[in-house]
Amino acid sequence: GHFGNVVRGEYRGQFVAVKILHASSTGQSPQSRNNFINEALLLQQYKHKNIVKFLGIAAIRDPLMIIMELIEQGSLNNYLKDNDLRVSQLILMCYDIAKGMAYLEKRNVIHRDLAARNCLVDKKNRVKVADFGLSRCLQSDEEYFCQIKEIPIRWWAVEVFLN
Asked: The Protein kinase domain covers which part of the protein (predicted)?
């Protein structure tokens, strides 16, 4: 991810995914820490079957860690490379992503890094949106354009250039 590495861990007797803030990020700036904590604060608000489930945060001492549900089959990107899927399966996966994104949109949240590498496939082949490191709550158009500078220019939507 942008701010950390994800490893498998154990939390309260279950296997989980643990996102650990890069050690270099911790020493670089308070902004890196704030972005990481912001990701956790956003994620803990989401309760939807197509959004990765937040379980906790370890923020008392370094390294900072976000604890999330472990999604068995990994990233959608790798899943698509490793499996020959029917069109009907692909459509269902796209629909899962759309449901997750619609949920976020209703809460005025912009993911800002939606890609197959940031979507996860569970054991039921349900897709969940993950990696909220660049996400922001949209309060006004002005805030959106102030924050957009964090995204590489090659990923900007056409509307950004038109405005």
From this structure: 1-163
**The one catalytic residue among 113, 122, 131, 141:** 113
Q: How confident is the model at residue 142 (pLDDT cuts 50, 70, 90)?
A: very low
- The first and second tokens of residue 110, run together, are 């912009």
SS3 61: coil
What's the Cα-to-Cα distance from 100 to each of 9, 24, 28, 50, rounded to whole Å? 25, 32, 33, 5
DSSP 8-state symbol, 67: E
* pLDDT tens for each residue of 52-73: 999 999 988 888 999 999 999 9
- Other Cβ atoms less than 10 A from the Cβ of 40: the count is 20
Name all domains of the chain by residue range, CATH numbers in brackets.
Answer: 6-161 (1.10.510.10)
Structure tokens at 90: 């692909």
- Residue 113 annotated to the active site: yes
- How many CB atoms lie under 10 A from the CB of residue 85? 13
pTM (predicted TM-score):
0.77
